[in-house]
Structures are given as C-alpha cells and as structure tokens.
Recover the amino acids of this structure.
C-alpha cells in the first residue's frame, strides 16, 4: 500500500472510555515532530491521541508512508508490565486500503505476539481515513470499551514496521529528558521491544507504557429488591427480610429499611433484618439502597400478616385459698386485636358453661388441685383455649397432748394421749411421740403411747406429739418430771420362813425383780446394812432366778438378808429367818419338817439330806401333806425308805 505523504508522517491511535463526568483526552507526539525533517524508518509514528466518550473507544492514526506497513498499539489494561491487547492497522498493497483488528495478544505473558491466528479478534473493521493540512494520512477506529474488558485505565505503547520485516521501534511519546531530539528511542522508552526470533514471528515485550487514566464509567443507579420468609406469617411471627439489591458498578454503601410504612427508612440497616408485626393485615415494607456514587433506588413489598388466635393464660391467687373460700380467677390472655368473649369450665367437665367474663370466682369444698379451663374468642372469630391448675390449700391439723400422770419413776413410763387432736379437713392423722430433746417414734395410727424415758433423762422434760395429715404437721407439747426408777426388788423363794436346818448350811433360792439397773447383790446373815462389797456372781449372773446359793448359819435362829443395789445407789432387801439345829445322832424329822412344810402338798418326790457326821442318810417323801401340829406330827402320811447304814431308821422316824 502506498500513501502520498511527506516523509515522517505519523500514525495516531485514539482510545476512548465512557465517563458521565466528561471525556478524557491525551495527545502524544515525537518532540521532534518536524514531519519533513527526515526519516525514522519506513513507517514512522509521529503522534498518538487517545480520547474517551460514553462507552466507546476511538483509535486515530497519523502515518508517514512510503510502502506497505503494519502499525500496532499495545495495551496493558491490568498494568502489570505486559501487553493484554493489540490494536493492529494493516496497510495493504492497494492504495488507501486498510484493515483494523483488536485482539488479545495470545497465550504469551512476557511478549506481545503480533500475529496469532488462533485468537479471534474482538474488533475487525475498516478504519475511516482523512488527511490533515500537511497531507498526512489520519485513520480512526472506534470500538466499545467492553472489547478490552471494560478497562477504565491502561498503559500503552506503539510500534510500526514494514511488511518485509523491517521496522522501527516505538517512540517515547511523552516529551522528557530521555528522548531529547532526533535520536532513536532510548532504553527507557515506554515501548515494545522487538524479538525477531527466526521462525517465531515478530514478538514484542511491553517494557513500559504511557499511562492513560480513563475516567470512571458513568454511574448508573443500583437495583433495589428483597425477599422475605415466611411468606404468610401470623402476627407475632418473626419475619426475615433479605436484600437482593445490587449495583453493576460496585458494592452498595448502605441499605436502609422502612418497616412501619411511615415513608422513613430509619427502622433498620443492613442486608438482612428480622421484624415481627404485632397486628394482622397487609403491612408494607420498603428498602432504600445507595451506591458509592450517591445514586439511590427503592422498592417496597406487601407482607400479608394473618390473624393469630388469642394466647390464653390465667392468673391465680398468690395467697392460699382454703376449702369453701372463694377463689379469684383472672384472664391475662392477649391478642393481636381484641378478645371479644370468655367462657370458663370450672368443674372440669369439658363444658365451658360455668362462668363468663375476664374475671370470675370459684369455690371448692375440698383441698387439692383443681383444673380450670378458659376459652377466648377474638374479634376475628379465632378461638383458643388454655388451662391452669388452682391449688386449694390444706388446713393444718390441730394437735393436742395430755399426760395422764406427769410425775413418776422413769421405769413406770408416761402415758401420752393425743386423742384430742383434730383435722379441719377430716383427713386421717398419724402421730409421732417423743422427747423434744431425744428420739421420736415412727408415725403410728394410735393416738396414745406410753413413753419410757431413759433413766439418764431425770428431772423436768418436755414431751411432744407431731400430728400429721397427708400434707402438713402440727405439734403439741407437755411437761413431765422424771424420777429415779424403782429400786431392785429382791425376793427369797427358799428355804421358807422358819425352816430348821440341821447341818449348818442353807441353800438359798430367789430372784431380783426390777433389775434393769442392778449393779450389786449378795446375802448376809444377821447384818443390818449392805456390805461395801456386794457383788456375788452366783446371784448377779442369775438374778432372774437363782438357787442353791450356800448360806452358812450359826446354831439358833438366823436372820438371812438378800441385798440388791442399783447404779443410782438405791438399796433394797428381802429377809427370811432360818433356824439351825444341833444334830448329833441323825435327822429329827419332827423338828425340821413341821415348820418347813406345813400346809404344803408335794406333788413330786422331794429330798432331804442328813449331813450328820457318819450318817449320810437320805429320806424320800412322796405325796406328803404335813399339817400344823406343834412340835410333833399331828398327822403324817408318809412312805419312808431309810437309806441309813445298817437299815437303822433315824431317830423320830416310825
């Protein structure tokens, strides 16, 4: 392609980005732009201009031409020092025939690949052609900013070469000290460098470029929208509102909500809010969104809030109410409108026919829980029911305690009588008796109890009874005086009073009653006071029934005393008199038996032993009844078998 233009004609490229604030313009030229002052190559780029307006880009080229050529403008839209797009203007062999293409530079990230058949151009057109006053060719190419990814700013460099491979490097199009005059491009030029690797085509690397700050795109208003859930709430339900608003040019700076339909967006802020509507009916909600450029948008939607049935509740008395007393019941039910009617079921029969109104009274004859139910109807006809349990309080029992004998020995016990206790509600009562400072019985049904204090609990004491029904307890007390227990009671059961003993030793039998506190026992002969040491183990170990305790007697009548002492120091005694005879020639039955056995019937064999020295006689008596008869037998029925040596009967035995 041949252009008739003076040597040094310029190619100019104009790139225009849309901006509502106005257009951006940039004109760069070789500082030695003398058009006719000499050649800088077969294709010389003299001036480059960039202009933006609206959303379109326009490229203007001024070129000095002598033969076929291609001119390039490389754009670094992300400003990382590498070309992203290449705008090529190709001059064909026919005069004034040009082809303009804009395409991504291809897969290379380090070079500008001039020819890449595998990448389709995003712009392909015939540029418009004019000539300036000097006759140089001016070409213009227009394309949308979207063709370069919507870039609002970029850096650029230009390059021209002939189709036979010769080329001139791009110029530093901004006048500065690095390009003083007609000299060729300097190392610091903002340009693409040529890499003419054989077989690889012509590759260019964007070393640096001329910054071109295109204005920001025109601000467009954001889009306001939102959703909410649930879509059919009832009054009182929490409704979640979520903004789906957007802005094509950036994030939103604020989102404000009108939740009470007053036209003021002052109820909440943010992308999502929760709100509960207290009343039924259609409720209008709006959102106002604003972008970084100050543009705003609003939208509103109607939220259909349905009627919620009443929430039924009942207030019960705080103070206890007893059987037969009026019990006040008050409805504390709520509704999103008004409650038009109340109906009560007070006898728990399932029918709401016992009372009407918000406040009613009920009377119950028995204690315990009583279920009350309330039905409420609102002004829209919605019905709800609720219930409460009213407690009719238990009345405490009335306790009474009487002590039959309030002063006495501890071992006699004290009869505690609580039969005068009553229960106002007629409940069955149980009783627990005891000393307030000591133990109590387990609950018992009998209202009386004989209380035995410990012998250590002497003096004035307080006894009590706890009277309980199935819910509560009452107490009554009484005073008693606990005296020392009865002293031990010794009893001599043998030998009988006035018995005559021949051999000087009697065998004592007996027992000690009231022996709980027994600590000492012994037998004395003709002694009027208990010995200091009185602890015969033969008696103590068998105090309930001892026998054959030997007692040594003197001739004549002996006063035999059985002593007993308890741990409180109380002493008691039992006395019997036993006569000891002087026996030298055998056993005198008349003397020894009349007094001992008079009036006594022996049902089984009994034995008397004669311990006269040298005698060792034993007499057996069976079925003998002896009658009183002075010093001799009045009448004796006996079957006597003598066991004396030699068959000789004892003296006095016939």
């Amino acid at each position: 392609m041949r252009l008739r233009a003076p040597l040094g004609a310029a190619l100019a490229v104009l790139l225009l980005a849309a901006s509502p604030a106005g257009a951006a313009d940039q004109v760069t030229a070789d500082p030695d732009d003398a058009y006719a002052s000499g050649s800088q190559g077969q294709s010389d780029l003299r001036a480059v201009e960039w202009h933006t307006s609206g959303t379109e880009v326009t490229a203007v080229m001024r070129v000095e031409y002598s033969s076929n050529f291609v001119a390039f403008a490389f754009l670094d839209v992300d400003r990382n020092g590498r070309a992203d797009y290449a705008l090529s203007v190709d001059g064909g062999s026919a005069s004034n025939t040009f082809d303009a293409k804009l395409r991504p530079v291809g897969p290379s990230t380090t070079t500008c690949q001039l020819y890449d058949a595998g990448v389709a151009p995003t712009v392909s057109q015939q540029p418009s052609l004019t000539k300036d006053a000097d006759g140089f060719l001016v070409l213009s190419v227009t394309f949308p900013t979207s063709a370069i990814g919507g870039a609002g700013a970029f850096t650029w460099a230009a390059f021209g070469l002939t189709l036979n491979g010769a080329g001139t490097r791009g110029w530093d199009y901004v006048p500065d000290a690095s390009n003083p005059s007609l000299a060729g491009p300097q190392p610091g030029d903002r340009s693409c460098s040529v890499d003419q690797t054989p077989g690889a085509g012509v590759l260019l690397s964007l070393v640096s470029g001329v910054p071109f700050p295109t204005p920001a795109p025109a601000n467009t208003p954001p889009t306001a929208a939102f959703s909410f859930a649930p879509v059919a709430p009832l009054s009182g339900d929490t409704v979640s509102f979520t903004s789906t608003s957007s802005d094509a040019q950036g994030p939103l700076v604020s989102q404000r909500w009108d939740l009470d339909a007053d036209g003021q967006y002052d109820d909440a802020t943010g992308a999502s809010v929760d709100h509960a509507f207290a009343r039924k009916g259609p409720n209008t909600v709006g959102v106002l969104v604003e972008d970084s450029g100050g543009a705003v948008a609003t939208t509103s939607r109607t939220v259909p809030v349905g009627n919620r049935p009443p929430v039924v509740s009942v207030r019960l008395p705080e103070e206890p109410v007893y059987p037969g007393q009026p019990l006040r019941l008050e409805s504390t039910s709520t509704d999103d409108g008004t409650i038009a009617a109340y109906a009560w079921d007070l006898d728990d029969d399932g029918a709401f026919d016992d009372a009407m109104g918000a406040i009613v009274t009920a009377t119950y004859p028995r204690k315990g829980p009583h279920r009350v139910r309330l039905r409420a109807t609102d002004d829209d006809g919605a019905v709800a029911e609720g219930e409460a349990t009213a407690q009719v309080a238990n009345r405490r029992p009335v306790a009474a305690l009487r002590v039959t004998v309030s002063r006495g020995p501890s071992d006699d016990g004290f009869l505690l009588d609580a039969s005068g206790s009553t229960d106002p509600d007629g409940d069955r009562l149980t009783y627990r008796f005891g000393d307030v400072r000591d133990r109590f019985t387990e609950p018992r049904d009998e209202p009386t109890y004989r209380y035995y204090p410990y012998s250590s609990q002497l003096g004035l004491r307080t006894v009590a009874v706890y009277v309980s029904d199935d819910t509560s307890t009452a107490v009554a007390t009484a005073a008693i005086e606990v005296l020392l227990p009865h002293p031990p009671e010794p009893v001599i059961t043998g030998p009988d009073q006035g018995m005559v003993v021949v051999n000087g030793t009697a065998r004592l039998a007996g027992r000690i009653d009231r022996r709980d506190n027994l600590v000492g026992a012994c037998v004395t002969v003709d002694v009027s006071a208990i010995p200091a040491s009185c602890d015969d183990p033969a008696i103590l170990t068998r105090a309930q029934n001892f026998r054959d305790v030997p007692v040594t007697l003197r001739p004549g009548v002996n006063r035999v005393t059985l002593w007993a002492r308890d741990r409180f120091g109380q002493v008691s005694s039992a006395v019997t008199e036993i006569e000891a005879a002087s026996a030298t020639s055998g056993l005198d039955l008349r003397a020894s038996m009349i007094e001992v056995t008079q009036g006594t019937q022996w049902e089984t064999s009994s034995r008397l032993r004669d311990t006269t020295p040298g005698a060792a006689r034993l007499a057996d008596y069976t079925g003998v009844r002896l009658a009183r008869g002075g010093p001799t037998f009045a009448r004796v029925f006996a079957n006597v078998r003598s066991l004396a040596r030699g068959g000789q009967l004892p003296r006095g035995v016939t």
About this structure: The chain is about 0% helix and 45% strand. The CA atoms of residues 106 and 119 lie 6 Å apart. The domain at 226-305 is CATH 2.60.40.10 (Immunoglobulin-like).
